[in-house]
Design goal:
By secondary structure, the chain is of the alpha+beta class. The strands form three sheets. Strands 3, 4, 5, 6, 7 and 8 form a six-stranded antiparallel beta sheet that branches. 28% of the residues lie in helices and 21% in strands.
Length: 314
């Protein structure tokens, strides 16, 4: 094969390569046909998305119309809504609320919880019928360096200084073994074993612990017969709260239904040095006797009668 034939074949191959490349470039730029979405396909997609979202939501029982207090709830009053996040303590099934009587007015849209059917506030549900809740002002020293927590037991100590109305200083346990209901805005458990306040997340829990350390009030469960004594002690002198050991298992006995009130009454009465000191009555003062007057000899009066002179004492 001569050189002319070879060059001709090469030219033909070159032209074919250029044509093939151009054709491939045009094909790559051709628009891709988009699938046509029918109404049926769109509805199916939306239903699938809604079903997936519904599985992640939580059921909450709400009131669909205003309900007066002390009126039993019926099925017509209630509905179930799906929320992304259910409120803490909310009811999730209508059967949990049917026939129950709320103690306050429920407006439409209110979500229900156990608190909706319980009378009284959180503190009232933390004590028994023979106890009273009393707040005591504290500082870092009185409140055990800010380390008190709901559920602790403390002895209430009283120090009386010596002054004009109190001739003898004293330090005594006014009331032993008082249960701490709350420190600042942090409360413990109600008598049904549930938290008195809604559960908090990690960040809110840290902030609440910081407020508890800096709290200036402590809420105590006081036996009713000792209530006036504690109130008097808070005004009479300096208080201290002494923390008792958890090994005494007082809180466990409380949840078991036992009562420490009789023992606390006896211990308080035995340990009290002198209750009159709490009232700042002090010891009875010795009346000041008037000075004894001694007889002073008065000079006589000289009486002259004629030639007789006599001395007479008036």
């Amino acid at each position: 094969m001569n050189s002319r034939v070879t060059m001709g074949l090469a030219g033909m191959l070159l032209v074919g390569a250029v044509v093939a490349g151009y054709w491939g470039l045009m094909l790559s730029r051709a628009p891709v046909a988009q699938p046509v979405e029918t109404p049926t396909a769109v509805a199916a997609i939306e239903k699938t998305v809604a079903t997936a979202e519904d599985q992640t939501r939580q059921s909450v029982v709400v009131v669909v119309r205003d309900v007066a207090p002390f009126t039993p709830l019926t099925a017509a009053d209630l509905a179930v809504e799906k929320l992304r996040s259910a409120p803490a303590g909310s009811l999730g099934n209508i059967d949990q609320a049917l026939g129950r009587t709320p103690w306050r007015t429920l407006t439409a849209g209110t979500w229900l919880s156990e608190d909706s059917f319980e009378s009284g506030g959180a503190v009232a549900r933390m004590i028994r019928s023979d106890e009273r809740a009393l707040a005591v002002a504290v500082d870092e020293v009185i409140g055990a360096a800010g380390q008190l927590a709901p559920g602790d037991y403390v002895d209430v100590l009283l120090y009386l200084r010596q002054d004009e109305s109190n001739p003898q200083q004293s330090a005594q346990i006014v009331i032993p073994a008082m249960r701490v209901l709350g420190v600042g805005d942090q409360l413990g458990l109600t008598n049904d074993g549930k938290p008195a306040t809604p559960p908090l997340n990690a960040e809110e829990k840290i902030k609440q612990d910081q407020r508890r350390i800096a709290a200036r009030t402590v809420l105590l469960a006081v036996p009713e017969p000792l209530l006036s004594r504690l109130m008097l002690a808070t005004q009479a002198g300096t208080l201290r709260l002494a923390v008792r050991s958890a090994e005494e298992q007082r809180l466990a006995r409380y949840w078991a239904g036992e009562s420490d009130t009789p023992g606390n009454l006896d211990a308080a009465n035995r340990g009290l040095i002198q209750f009159t000191q709490l009232a700042l009555g002090g010891a009875p003062k010795t009346p000041v006797s008037s000075p004894v007057r001694t007889a002073v000899a008065r000079p006589g009066v000289e009486v002259i009668r004629g030639n007789q002179i006599t001395q007479q004492t008036p």
